[in-house]
Amino acid sequence: MARSLKVAQEYQQKVKSSLQRNSYPSQKALADDLGISLSTVKNFLGSKPVDYQYFVEICRKLELNWQEIAHKESDTQLNSSTTLEETSPFITGSSITHPRHFFGRQKELKRLFDLLKRHPLQNAAIIGKRRIGKTSLLHYLKNITTTPPEQLRAAQKYDWLPHPENYKWIFVDFQDPRMASRERLLSYILECLSLKVPTLCNLDYFMDIVSDNLHSPTVILLDEIGVGLKRCPELDDEFWECLRSLATNHTRGNLAFILATHESPIELARNTGHSSPFFNIFGYTATLGALTEAEARELIASSPITFAEEDVEWILQQSQCLPLLLQILCRERLFNLEDGETDENWREEGLRQIEPFAHLLEAQTQR
């Protein structure tokens, strides 16, 4: 989900008066026009947090400058809300969702955003071994351009798109069993687009409403698409052909797909018995491997306790600059320093912790 926003108190009266100024007789009329719930509109008008995308959409309808009226956290509030994240700089057990903790991939990011900042939006595939960072990269694409600069690292680039507030991002995780249902998946996409969801959502309705109403740049991020192809029989060639048709013919260049997979989309389709031309539309492929040494050093330097240079060199050597291994070894060194230990046992423990991910090292050696 995108981050939430709320109306600043000093703009609350201006926001409420904009309803009548734009000829909406009631809050329900605005909700119906946008195709969102009445409770979302009430929360917006009452200066309560609403989803970022809904906040921007409502502001457009009411002819309000969303950046002007949005509540901005004070430094004290910001520090309070990010304390937990700052004390856990090395993340190893889950994907990285906050841009502040994502490092590297600058070459891939530049190319991906180049594909998305002009019309027509173009499609891309992110390929790599398990635990190489594909999901984290998808989250970064989705979140970096709308995260306030004060929540990022110093000098961290965020101005990848000329008008990021115009973009809609939809993250689909095919490891979520709810996405195995065609109807549930189509309904989820419509909800993310703030479009009306019918009682029964079939492909014909989905094609019609998206074709008629998708007027802003939209990127659908498909994570673990291989799982969807192997385990979800309802997501057949007809389904994928529908998505291809929308992207190439019916949305005026406003729709793009970025998928994450272990192999090329064409090979993935062939190996799972699919023949849809959807898998031929990915003109750019980013194959993820190790970070550059400079990117790896930046990650290591993010530790709240500075590492000795000999420890930095050892971490670089043992990890081969692979992001997950870097995170694990840095975590072990940080724990060791926080506990006031002076021995080298952390190195032995670090090697033991990265052993289950030896396949990453083997793949790196073969490159």
What does this structure look like?
This protein is of the alpha/beta class and 367 residues long. The protein folds into three domains: 4-69, Orthogonal Bundle (434 Repressor (Amino-terminal Domain)), CATH 1.10.260; 99-287, Rossmann fold (3-Layer(aba) Sandwich), CATH 3.40.50.300; 293-366, no CATH class. It is built from 18 helices and seven strands. It has helices spanning 12-21, 27-34, 38-45, 52-61, 66-69, 75-86, 106-116, 134-143, 182-192, 203-213, 225-231, 237-250, 265-271, 293-301, 309-319, 323-338, 345-354, 358-366; strands at residues 4-5, 50-51, 124-127, 168-173, 218-223, 255-261, 284-287. It has a five-stranded parallel β-sheet with strand order 4-5-6-3-7, with helices on both faces. Helix 2 packs across helix 3 and helix 16 runs antiparallel to helix 17 (345-354). The longest helix has 16 residues, at 323-338. It is globular. Mean pLDDT is 89; it is low at 74-87.
